[in-house]
Specification:
By secondary structure, the chain is of the alpha/beta class. Helix content is 35%, strand content 26%. α1 packs across α12. The longest helix has 17 residues. It binds L-homoserine.
Length: 400
């Protein structure tokens, strides 16, 4: 029997206890040992719940119990998760987490501490919920040189954008529903301002390119400015609006950004709707591959955490290399990432037509006071400078 402890009995923590109980035999089939949860740490009480008898409010119970070999951190946030994780690793306990904030901020250090103490710090659930993208990058694709990573990495915003596009829902209603279903972060700004997706693309890109990319260097735009008119234009153009994280290995460094993008059916991410996430990678040997699955929610995220728990059980006395390194990547300035853009503006449509690509200028009867177009390939800086000569820009959205 291998004993684990779960810190934080929220949406994901409760899912972990449920999966380890419900799939006990499956886990044992893979690890050769039964895994039992000995403690659940939380500030709250859960009278009448299945964890009532193993609940503790005292972290030291877990730290000082030599029988506990694996600690699951599903508390979220930086404090006290950082201190609890660090102390557990230093005490020779493996730690598995879904906490992307902590991995993005301190992952490099925590992996180093884990290696120094011959244990593991595993974080599959930190990116893409239940999608096993981190294990794919760290194990399956280690012989490839990854050139690009692109994904829909936040379930809440994808759920909101899908509801707005398909059901004409207002932003606030769609957000409330995502919160009710347990997808959203405690503070939904992290979802809607793009910070959650930003941390995830920084983690995935660091693994993919073998150099550390700080989430602070990722140019990030959220979805709060997307309105019903943008949705109408997108539909008229046969496109959808998605919050996309994208990074590419360039000659002089890594370009990386998170932005709402207008994408057409030619993009593999076009049909990724609702709470689903997908990550697309391009390797020099593999070519293109995409992983698709539930990006948020209790059981899907718990599935990823429990996969890590099982991996720790299989490697109790060995550190698995995670691919996070101390060496910093050179991140290129976001203003220099060229692309095509969807532009809404008022002013001189005839003159602005010189900026439009083959599609020319769009005019929709619903919005008689403005026009729109898709630009040719250029940087956003260049586009803004050129648009200024023809009128007032209402909105710019990258064409993905
Ligand atoms: N709030 C996150 C999301 C949870 O909506 O994707 C999973 O990381």
């Amino acid at each position: 029997m291998i004993y684990a402890a779960v810190m934080g009995y929220g949406t994901v923590g409760a899912g972990v206890v449920q999966v380890l109980t419900m799939n006990r035999d499956e886990v044992k089939r893979h690890t050769g040992e039964e895994i039992a949860v000995k403690y659940v740490l939380d500030l709250r009480d859960f009278p009448g719940s299945p964890v009532e008898k193993i609940l503790t409010h005292n972290y030291e119970d877990i730290l000082n119990d030599p029988e506990v070999r694996i600690v699951v951190e599903t508390m979220g946030g930086l404090r006290p998760a950082y201190d609890f994780t660090k102390r557990a690793l230093m005490a020779g306990k493996h730690v598995c987490t879904s906490n992307k904030e902590l991995v993005a901020e301190h992952g490099v250090e925590l992996c180093r501490i884990a290696a120094e103490h011959q244990v593991n710090y595993l974080f599959e659930a930190s990116c893409g919920g239940g999608i096993p993208i981190i294990r794919a990058l760290n194990a399956s694709l280690t012989a490839d040189r990854i050139e690009m990573v692109e994904g829909i990495l936040n379930g809440t915003t994808n759920y909101i954008l899908t509801s707005m596009a398909e059901e004409g829902k207002e932003f606030d209603d769609a957000l409330r529903e995502a919160q009710k279903m347990g997808y959203a972060e405690l503070h939904p700004e992290a979802d809607i301002e793009g910070w959650d997706a930003c941390r995830k693309i920084a983690i995935l890109s660091s693994l993919a390119y073998g150099q550390h990319i700080s989430y602070k260097d990722v140019h990030t735009v959220g979805i709060t400015e997307i309105d019903a008119a943008d949705m109408t234009y997108a539909k008229a153009a046969g496109c959808k609006i998605k919050l996309i994280g994208r990074s590419c290995r360039e000659e002089k460094g890594v370009s990386i950004l998170v932005e709402p993008m207008m994408i057409g059916p030619e993009n593999q991410l076009y049909s990724v709707d609702g709470v689903m996430n997908a990550v697309f990678v391009r390797g020099n040997a593999l070519g293109d591959a995409m992983l698709y699955g539930s990006g948020a929610g209790s059981l899907p995220t718990a599935s990823a955490v429990c996969g890590d728990v099982a991996d720790c059980a299989k490697h109790l006395n060995k550190t698995i290399r995670t691919g996070l390194t101390e060496e910093n990547a050179s991140v290129l300035p976001a203003g220099n990432v060229p692309g095509r853009f969807f532009v809404r503006m008022d002013g001189d449509a005839g003159k602005a037509a010189v900026l439009a690509g083959a599609g020319g200028v769009m005019r929709l009867p619903e919005f008689p006071e403005e026009f729109a177009f898709f630009s040719e390939q250029m940087t956003e800086e260049e586009l803004r400078t050129r648009c200024a000569a023809f009128g007032n820009v209402r909105k710019i959205i990258r064409r993905g």
